[in-house]
Amino acid sequence: MKNPAFPFLLPMLLLSLGGFVAPMGVLAFYSLSAGGNPGLFGNYAAFLEDPFNLWIIVDTVTLGFKVVVVATCLAVPIAMLYWHGGRRLRQTVVVLALLPMLASNIVRTFAWIVLLGRNGPLVAIADALGLIDGPRSFLLTEGGLVIALAQIELPLLLLPMIAVLSRMDRRLVEAAEMAGAGPWRIMFTIVLPLTLPGIIAGWILTFASAATNFVTQAAIGGARLIYLPQFLYRQVNILFDWPTASVVAFILIISTGSVILALAMLTRHPRLIGNA
Amino acid sequence: MRKSWTSHLSSISYGLFVYGLGALFLGFMVVPVLISLSMSFTSGQTLKFPPPGLSLRWYAALLDPVQSEIVQQAAWNTLQIAVFAVLASLVFAVPAAFGMARISARRANALEPLFLAPMVLPSLVYGLALLIAANLMHISPSIWLVVLANVVVFGPLMFRATSSIAQQLDPSLEDASSLLGASRWSTFRRVTLPLLAPGIYAGMFLVFIQSIENVSLPLFLAPAGTTILPLEMFAMLQDSLDPRIAAISGVLIAITVLVLVAVQRLTPFLRDQGRS
Amino acid sequence: MPDFKMNRRQFGLGLAAAGLSMPMLSRPGLAAGSVTVATFPNAWEQAYRKVIVPMLAAKGTTLTIAPALTTAQIAKVLAAKQGSAPPPYDALLLSPGDIDIAVKNDLLAEVDPSKISNWSKLAPASQGKYGPTVTLEVDGFAYNPDVVPKPTSYKDLFENPAFAGKVSWTGFDSNTAIEFYSEIAKVYGSGPYDMDAVFKLFKDKKDFLGPIVDTTSHQMTMLQQGEIGVFMASTNNVAQLKALGAKAEFTSPDTGSPAVPVVIVMTKGATNPDAVHEYMDAAISADAQNVLQMPPTEYIPTNSDVKLAPGLAAYLTPETMSKLVYLDWGTVAQHRAEWTKQFDRVVKG
């Protein structure tokens, strides 16, 4: 590669090859060779043949999507608040956007147990709105898990959006205003499209994090909702079945990785770059 | 110019969307953090919400060298790991994000999966893979191994946060700089890096927080006898629902807010670049 | 497990850089008369530093306490073995289920009782081939008396309407849970390993099942918040909750309390076996156990010279102690993966 950009890519490339590909190669060898299943891909076949396991894969990817959708609905108004805000408001939004990441996972999860519990405020609100009949607990439900994950991962979506918005030129919008465009139109045709690279970066981070966040999945989702990371955790920590763990790890990389890849390719789509 | 009633309606609904929903969702994002914080000021003996009374005793306990010697040592170890991880991510990921925006989309699409793959793998599995691989090479667990793992797993956060901005940079700026005789490296340093700054700051924050939070990587890769904060917190929760866990989050939040205020005075991170 | 040695050379160059030693945090020294032992983090770590480290220091042995979760203990020793390196820990702290895994992977060395002067003070059940039992976890029902009446038997939990939806369970990941499922299998099925009876019970009595979660700490939180009424816990869990002002009581099931030993074992290839024996001897000595059975740790003593402290005696009545139930963890290990798989399918929501 004679490209002048190559020296900039080299350090990360070496890190990936030495620090990631090599150890994962060991794991790949494990996933293929160890264990009692015949054939080169015997371990994979054994896992994928079971419809129960296939559903776990589907559930994991779906969970990531659901969290991304909810987080996006939450993030757009906040980002627009930032966009319209003056200096003080912008600073406040940034600081508040960072806060959820600062409370440790353990404490955050505890707070969610309180919020989603039988005596918690979310149940009271849903009851008052007539969404549910009679008090119950949102803990250990998929809905509760999606809401909690959306809150926990929200900064991962907001930060890249804010980073892009912070250096966006307001004159573009002023020109549109002068041409008589309404605020909704400006948001949908100018501001959000220009923010799209940040949004997609945020989707990638949020999806990856939500789909692999073992701690929250386990604590809020409980043992009835099973996702690939919990499955992995168990194979590694409880059953010490490292070959199966390797198989599940590669299946997780491929299933969630392909979603992320599609998103990442989207940012380089010629149409999109043309817009931006 | 007289506005039609539809345009009024549009302004009102837009205002509600931005300021009403924006503020509401910002509140949603912050409430769980406030709950965690309020528990740290409990006068009771356990993490409980609502706290039976208020006091600073758990902060005092955290600072007390006799009661919290282990926790303080663990915090110090964790801090060192996180700082090294952030510095190393800067070296690897930022140039890569820049280089990625300067190569053809086809090449970028081929290379990016490699850089993003660590994100979709639960760190537990990567920690195990690196432990096995390192031992095969006769490298025993060490703090440097933990740092390496943190860079591999969380470096992509820095890469992603930075590349969303790098993709929007106008190459003509750099061309202009080169025409004026600046070397490629000095162009990168003087022209590109300041423009990337918002993404870099976001990335530094993400890498730092994730390195502080992560249990799995140091669990497998730290040398025997080196204790780290998230592991101690995990045990504190299991042993006794110890409110010091919430106090640790409180300290982290206080430090981050202070750092942000300081940074804001020194750098353009929070400054309103779009206007002025 | 396959032998990895032959593939060693195939793997990357980049890792070499990671082998640099750390100037600021070096690995504990391997001087003569020093020994590095793994314990559970925090409470255990702190107690052993305070009690056991000075006892060995008095004999001129430097003891380094290395806190680690069970997984990390086994994974690090196993990985070191695959790389033909000496084990990172000289001794581990394990429960029988994990000892079984360690033995299968040939990670442990047998101890020499003649080098442990307190060995004869242990009950025969505590004199393990790979090391002494230093304490027992005694389990039963933890309940919140504001939420439910006092439970007495497993039938209560599945048939008395007062408990419907109030009893929390964990999956087969937890050793504590497996003991209880084994007890339930005795009541509702043909014997301690008849888990099909348990699965059938879980299917038939769906309304009686409360939250099914992953860990005991999660259950402690929920009990404190009034979210659940009963969970399966150790006397230690309940003592902690109570000492901290939470509403919680302990009671033994009518069929007896399950017990899990906690054992110090020596790793194969330990750098200083004599020091490891000294460490084991100190951990089972009456001096150490007299201190460790007091709050905040309240570890149940295994040395027969130690008289039960009043705090512990409140939970461990002579009747409870005479009816302790032990599980054969070798049998559990054989079936664990299969049971886990079945359980997932039964509870999947």
UniProtKB/TrEMBL annotation, chain A:
GO biological process assignments: transmembrane transport
Membrane-spanning segments: 12-32, 52-81, 93-115, 145-165, 186-208, 245-266
Residues in ABC transmembrane type-1 domain copies: 57-263
KW Cell membrane (keyword) present: yes
Cellular compartments per GO CC: plasma membrane
Pfam families (UniProt xref): BPD_transp_1
Primary site of residence: membrane
Compartments where located: Cell membrane
Alphabetic keyword roster: Cell membrane, Membrane, Transmembrane, Transmembrane helix, Transport
Mode of membrane association: Multi-pass membrane protein
Assigned protein family: Belongs to the binding-protein-dependent transport system permease family. CysTW subfamily.
Name the UniProt record assigns to this protein: Putative spermidine/putrescine transport system permease protein
Organism: Kaistia soli DSM 19436
Taxonomic classification: Bacteria, Pseudomonadati, Pseudomonadota, Alphaproteobacteria, Hyphomicrobiales
Automatic annotation (TrEMBL), chain B:
Keyword Transmembrane in record: yes
CDD domains per the UniProt record, alphabetical: TM_PBP2
Keywords: Cell inner membrane, Cell membrane, Membrane, Transmembrane, Transmembrane helix, Transport
Compartments, as annotated in UniProt: Cell inner membrane; Cell membrane
A biological-process GO annotation: transmembrane transport
Family of the protein in this entry: Belongs to the binding-protein-dependent transport system permease family.
Protein name: Putative spermidine/putrescine transport system permease protein
Automatic annotation (TrEMBL), chain C:
Highest taxon of the lineage: Bacteria
InterPro entries per UniProt: SBP, TAT_signal
Gene Ontology biological-process entries: thiamine transport
GO CC annotation terms, alphabetical: outer membrane-bounded periplasmic space
N-terminal signal peptide: 1-31
Keywords: Periplasm, Signal
GO molecular function term, any single one: thiamine binding
One Pfam short name: SBP_bac_8
The protein's name in its UniProt record: Putative spermidine/putrescine transport system substrate-binding protein
